[in-house]
């Protein structure tokens, strides 16, 4: 087994599963966290992630297949998507894919799922398909406020990590999102995004 | 080059003098007077500004005496122009403007939050860090990119400092309450489940505050312990997320809450896991001080002339990610 990445939450290993390449994602206990709190969080997120990876497939979101879940050590074995995270692609490609990402997020929201960790590292481009990963913080929710929190996060990430292309990428994202959720929901949710931002510290008060 | 920095954004009125030789800064003096509200109460902006007015001249002269210089030796004057409490900001600005116009010294308005970061870099030697700014006014994760500090995560409602202070005040402590809470917390190890709200790289503390208050009705000590464990774990997790997203190899923690030992301990563990260097601003300079304003002003003076008196503003809401950094 080869360690591929020490993520924020979990360690990612490459392995074989029934003769095909697979990923082992394991949430190891964090020493800094109180152990009661830690085991609760790790277990909860492992369950959530494995359920959601399968659930969202039913309405057409490309995700890795889940092969095996082990709650004793909070690990998930899933299909490897051997593509590149959108974060690492060229700026023009990120702008182009933003529309597709917007559509995917729209589909999630329309089906009552909030992703909870929408960063450009959690979308993988493989063979012209954008896969969504990392559902550990996801929730089943139809509340517009929750959906708005999702949008705010990706906006923040574009604003910080992809500052140069923020305007065009965000515009494309919104176009894609709107095409799925429809203009009524779109108006409501984007207004909520502004509401959330205005509650932030030292936000511009008009 | 000699600079004077004046800080008056919230409870602290401070004057500091820094001497810059080449690119090194040496703090010659940093004098502070801190307004203390009554136990269980928060800052009253009018009372705080009155405190600043009453103390500004003595703090200023003390800072000059300790640095063994006179006002005429100063090359620049900087003051904290925001973010902060309007009445308090105004006091510092008035002092700075008076000195600048009477002695004809260039004047620089400085963003208080940038000040925390720049002073931290000066004192810790961090070069390209992910910055965790935790204080009464801020809870933010920042990284420098393309001439600006960019926000990679922040609180969606109250700050970590506010969370600790508001909870502490409900127990009747005097703010800032971090130290009292830390002391009480160290006597317990009984964890009571509290809401844990991490949203991507962002955190939200308001629900945690209400929940902790109700736990405190049964047991204050357990409440303090569980509050610290939960809030700091949330922060540490966002730090971890931001570290792995930005791939930075340094973490620097600045701001008043940087003084908390438990938080440092947890973040050190995070850094170890990610093979990243850990810097924490020295205790004495963690909280608000004139040095942070002075040093930032000195840095700015490298690339631009002083501000015209008519443009020496104060702004209560001035986000640090809107400041363009050219030095």
Question: Between the first and last Cα atoms of chain A, what is the distance in angstroms?
Answer: 55 Å
Q: Which outline of chain B best applies?
A: globular
Strand proportion of chain A: 15-25%
Tally of extended strands of chain B? 12
Question: Would you write up a description of this structure?
Answer:
The complex is a heterodimer of chains A (206) and B (327). By secondary structure, chain A is of the alpha+beta class. Chain A folds into two domains: 78 residues, Phosphorylase Kinase, domain 1 (2-Layer Sandwich), CATH 3.30.200; 116 residues, Transferase(Phosphotransferase) domain 1 (Transferase(Phosphotransferase), domain 1, Orthogonal Bundle), CATH 1.10.510. Chain A is built from four helices and ten strands; from the N terminus they run βββαβββαββββαα. The mean pLDDT of chain A is 95. In chain B, α5 packs across α7 and α6 runs antiparallel to α7. Chain B folds into two domains: 150 residues, Nucleotidyltransferase, domain 5; 161 residues, ATPase, nucleotide binding domain (Nucleotidyltransferase, domain 5), CATH 3.30.420. The model of chain B has no long low-confidence stretch (mean pLDDT 96). With 327 residues, chain B is an alpha/beta fold. In chain B, the strands form three sheets. A five-stranded mixed β-sheet of chain B has the order 3-2-1-4-5, sandwiched between helices. Chain B contains nine helices and twelve strands. In chain B, 42% of the residues lie in helices and 22% in strands. In chain B, a hairpin with a 4-residue loop joins β6 and β7. Classes of the chains: A alpha+beta (206), B alpha/beta (327). At the A-B interface, α1 and α3 of A face β7, β8, β9, α7 and α8 of B.
């Amino acid at each position: 087994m080869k360690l591929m990445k020490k993520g924020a939450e979990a360690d990612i290993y490459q392995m074989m599963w029934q003769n095909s390449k697979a990923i082992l994602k394991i949430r190891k206990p964090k020493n800094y966290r109180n152990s009661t709190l830690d085991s609760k969080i790790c277990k909860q997120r492992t369950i959530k992630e494995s359920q959601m990876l399968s659930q969202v497939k039913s309405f057409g979101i490309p995700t890795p297949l889940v092969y095996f879940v082990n709650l004793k050590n909070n690990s998930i074995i899933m299909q490897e998507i051997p593509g590149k995270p959108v974060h690492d692609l060229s700026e023009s490609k990120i702008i182009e894919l933003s529309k597709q990402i917007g559509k995917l997020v729209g589909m999630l929201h329309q089906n009552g799922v909030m992703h909870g960790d929408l960063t450009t590292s959690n979308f993988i481009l493989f063979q012209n398909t954008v896969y969504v990963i990392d559902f550990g913080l996801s929730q089943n929710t139809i509340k517009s406020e929750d959906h708005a929190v999702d949008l705010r996060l990706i906006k923040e990430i574009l604003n910080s990590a992809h500052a140069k292309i923020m305007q065009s990428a965000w515009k494309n994202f919104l176009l894609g999102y709107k095409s799925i959720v429809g203009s009524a929901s779109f108006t409501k949710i984007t207004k909520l995004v502004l509401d959330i931002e205005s509650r932030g510290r030292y936000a511009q008060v008009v | 080059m000699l600079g004077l920095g004046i800080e008056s954004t919230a409870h602290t009125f401070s004057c500091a003098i820094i001497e810059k030789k080449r690119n090194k800064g040496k703090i010659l003096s940093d004098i502070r007077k801190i307004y203390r509200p009554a136990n269980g109460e928060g800052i009253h902006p009018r009372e705080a500004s009155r405190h600043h007015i009453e103390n500004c001249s003595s703090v200023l002269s003390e800072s000059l005496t300790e640095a063994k210089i006179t006002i005429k030796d100063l090359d620049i004057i900087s003051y904290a122009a925001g973010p902060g409490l309007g009445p308090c900001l105004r006091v510092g600005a008035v002092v700075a403007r008076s000195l600048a116009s009477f002695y004809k010294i260039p004047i620089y308005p400085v963003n208080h939050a940038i000040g925390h970061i720049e002073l931290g870099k000066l004192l810790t030697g961090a070069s390209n860090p992910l910055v965790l700014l935790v204080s009464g006014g801020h809870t933010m994760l920042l990284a420098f990119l393309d001439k600006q500090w960019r926000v990679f995560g922040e609180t969606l409602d109250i700050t970590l400092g506010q969370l600790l202070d508001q909870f502490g005040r409900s127990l009747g402590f005097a703010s800032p309450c971090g130290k009292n809470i830390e002391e009480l917390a160290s006597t317990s190890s009984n964890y009571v489940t509290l809401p844990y709200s991490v949203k991507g790289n962002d955190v939200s503390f308001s629900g945690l505050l209400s929940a902790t208050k109700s736990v405190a009705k049964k047991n204050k000590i357990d409440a303090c312990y569980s509050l610290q464990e939960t809030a700091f774990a949330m922060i540490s997790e966002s730090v971890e997320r931001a570290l792995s997203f930005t791939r930075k190899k340094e973490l620097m923690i600045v701001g008043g809450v940087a003084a908390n030992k438990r938080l440092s301990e947890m973040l050190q563990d995070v850094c170890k896991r990610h093979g990243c260097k850990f810097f924490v601003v020295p205790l004495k300079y963690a909280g608000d001080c004139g040095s942070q304003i002075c040093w930032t002003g000195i840095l700015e003076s490298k690339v631009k002339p002083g501000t015209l008196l008519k443009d020496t503003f104060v702004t209560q809401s001035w986000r640090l990610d809107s400041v363009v950094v050219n030095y």
